[in-house]
Amino acid sequence: MTPIRVSLLLGLVCLVAGWQVIQIPESAIEMAVGPALMPALIVGGLSLVSLLYGIGAYRGLQADDAADPEQAALSGSTTRFLFLLGAGAIFIGLVGLVGFVPSATLCGVCIARAFDAPINLKSFLICGAIVIFFWFLFSKILGIGLGPALTLI
Amino acid sequence: MEAFEALLAGFASALTPTTLMWGFIGCFVGTMVGVLPGLGPALTIALLLPLTYHVPATSMFVMFAGIYYGAAYGGSTTSILLNTPGETSSVVTALEGNKMARSGRAGQALATAAIGSFVAGTIAILALTFIAPWVVEVALAFGPAEYFSLMVLSLVAVSSVLGNSLLRGLVSLGLGLLIGMVGIDLQTGQMRFTFGQPQLLDGIEITVAAVGLFAVGEALYLAWQGRSSQPGSLTKLSGSLWMSTQDWARSWKAWIRGALFGFPIGAMPAGGAEVPTLLSYYTEKKLSKHPEEFGHGAIEGVAGPEAANNASAAGVLMPLLTLGIPTSATAAVMLSAFESYGIQTGPQLFSTNSGLVWTLIASLYIGNFILLVLNLPLVGLWVKLLRIPPPWLYAGIIVVSIIGVYGAGQSLFNVGLLFVFGLAGYIMRRFDFPAAPVLVGLILSPLAEQSMRQALTISQGQWSTFITRPISATLLAIAVMLLLAQPLYQRWKNRQAPIGPEDGSPTA
Asked: What ipTM does the predicted assembly reach?
């Protein structure tokens, strides 16, 4: 990722948003401002500032922490990054099948791995304890619906 | 006098055991999130939004106020002992506070921060108590055109003041405004930006956006960096928590000056806490009889900025309670909580929900006292929190984030969206886009659209209504000035800079 790619991403967002503005049907109700005006103004404004950002990025004027030796990533950044994103995918994929506690525990283990903790029994036990504590606090004490703690398939 | 009587009624309500308990929980949790890196009041309040279905409004807002205030207190502990500010507003405290801690005066640094926060907080709440009703009276004269212009000013101010670049601030704002448009248009019933997904018909929940941008985004950024896998080096808690006579003499004026910077700047659109803390620091440095101590652990350099920080927290509540305008990410999330309860914010809040508002203000006084009592004796506990290894800390933060989002309706779509916002938060953090304008834009864009439509309906479609009405025109003029000020100043500065002798490039 570089500032130029960020500007391209912003350009893509503007294109998709512009296409969506065209899709908004006109309202049958007679009114001074229809449902598409404000979105069109916003997309227009965003396109303008995105273009200016892109010009700045092309000229090398936009910031990127990767270019700063004190902020740049250490080796293994992709693995750490993917473990954290994978944690979310694991939770989404498993919570319906096995219940909240096992899926969130696995999710926690992957997050801990993203911060360089090894995947071992200790990691499972600590993450399990964290998940059970918060599940009990939120689900049982505060009454927030998190579904069953454990679903036996 | 009327305000005083209403405040007394607020105290009567806030001092009931249940409300007091929520206030205490809020202060405790707030201090904890202020201490812990990667958490903040906006994120914490967003995570607790699902509780609005179970807890009465008064108790909830008393707790939220405690969290907001507690976070402002708690940030000083990490700044002083770890040289890692938990909040951006505590950055200045770290400059002198950590130096004091390293020279064996951590106790005094923590004490002047806590007592200063109490003194300045009290001054700011007094100002809020007596100025807010006056602002409400003025605001009652506002029509939809004035409201629209005020929101434009607020949005521009948030984008231009927060962050390092006006352009990147405006990109963030544009994205926030766009996200705020997702869902069914309430006036016409037309779907906008939903891509045919039924989950998007109600729009994007602020909890998902706030938690994704702040918690998941921060965790992704830190995981990408790989520099936070070990806890930072913690300076030993040393020195008495009692301040000497000389410490008191050097601190009290700084506390008061800090409060005078913090409250008015905090109450301005996008004033925030960063500007008053910096102003306070440089003022104390200039006025100090010991300027040579600055940079080596001057107590005024901790006292003033910490006081300014806490006073600005009360200041931020002013536009939220009186005008219904959020000027920070935390205020935007609190506004969303008002909406969850179906409470109409704005000047009419003082008449329609007078009990709630005055209980909230009274709870700030009580919370300020609770925090003073809580902060110093429990400093050992806060230090222990700082020793939690990052893998378990972030595992806990993300699990709680998932609970906050999943618990609101068991929607896996929203959990997926949480990680999409997390990715956006990572990109924004890495490429230096401020995140607060996204949240403020998200919450204000439907409100601004509504005001614009009402104004144009009243004026029979005449756009000139925004510039022919004096208050509206003034607000828009200020917004334009704010937009132009930074680029013009930059251009002027570049012209002033001497040209380099060899390559022709500016040397400054």
From this structure: 0.94
